[in-house]
């Protein structure tokens, strides 16, 4: 039987592959923009092409087509915004708004006692929402959800400052640095906090201790 206390959060959440893939189109945008003589059209074309290639590879590897449409859709929308305004830094504007919305959503989920970390892990482990009836898991998931709020806020602050300064190249660099490396760090800290918050005798994430009827 698997030791559920030793099962990693990274394993349950699917690792860092998705976050790594998400950092490639913005990098392609900056590269295309530079090679095209600071042409927003070149950058947009490179980003969309990269997004399509990454999406097709993910589908071939077993990802759902719906996930491909969503990820490519975001790249296309970001490129459209930049093309409409003519400002290359605006390619990253959508990412700033999405991170701000994510920070608010995660924080709200903790306050209303529906921490999104518990929701995601509960669905990933097949136990759905039974964890909400376990006071120890509820407390642990609420505590361990705060690093996720922090990572989104950090991106908003960094990306927002660079966007205001019009630093396109730095935006591309930090988009990569604050995507999968930050995601890995967030998962590691969140997993550590989750384990620390659970009592030593708790059976693990897959086995909520339900109150007796």
TrEMBL record:
Organism expressing this protein natively: Saccharothrix longispora
Ranges that cross the membrane: 40-60, 67-83, 103-125, 146-166, 172-194
UniProt signal peptide: none
UniProt protein name: DUF3159 domain-containing protein
A Pfam match: DUF3159
Keyword Cell division assigned: no
Keywords, in A-Z order: Membrane, Transmembrane, Transmembrane helix
InterPro entries recorded: UCP010219 (IPR016566)
């Amino acid at each position: 039987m698997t030791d559920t206390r030793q099962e990693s959060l990274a394993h349950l959440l699917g690792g860092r592959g998705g976050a790594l893939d998400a950092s490639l189109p913005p990098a392609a945008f900056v590269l295309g923009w530079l090679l095209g003589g600071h042409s927003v059209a070149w950058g947009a074309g490179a980003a969309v092409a990269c997004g399509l290639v990454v999406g097709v590879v993910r589908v071939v590897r077993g990802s759902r087509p719906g996930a491909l449409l969503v990820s490519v859709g975001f790249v296309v929308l970001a490129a459209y915004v930049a093309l409409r305004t003519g400002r290359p830094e605006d390619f990253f504007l959508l990412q700033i708004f999405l991170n701000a919305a994510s920070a608010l959503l995660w924080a709200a989920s903790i306050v209303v006692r529906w921490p999104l970390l518990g929701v995601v892990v509960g669905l990933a482990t097949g136990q759905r929402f039974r964890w909400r009836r376990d006071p120890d898991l509820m407390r642990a998931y609420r505590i361990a959800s705060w690093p996720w709020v922090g990572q989104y806020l950090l991106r908003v602050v960094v990306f927002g400052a660079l966007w205001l300064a019009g630093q396109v190249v730095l935006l591309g660099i930090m988009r990569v640095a604050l995507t999968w490396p930050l995601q890995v760090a967030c998962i590691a800290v969140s997993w550590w906090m989750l384990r620390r918050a659970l009592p030593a005798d708790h059976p693990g994430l897959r086995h909520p201790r339900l109150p007796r009827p």
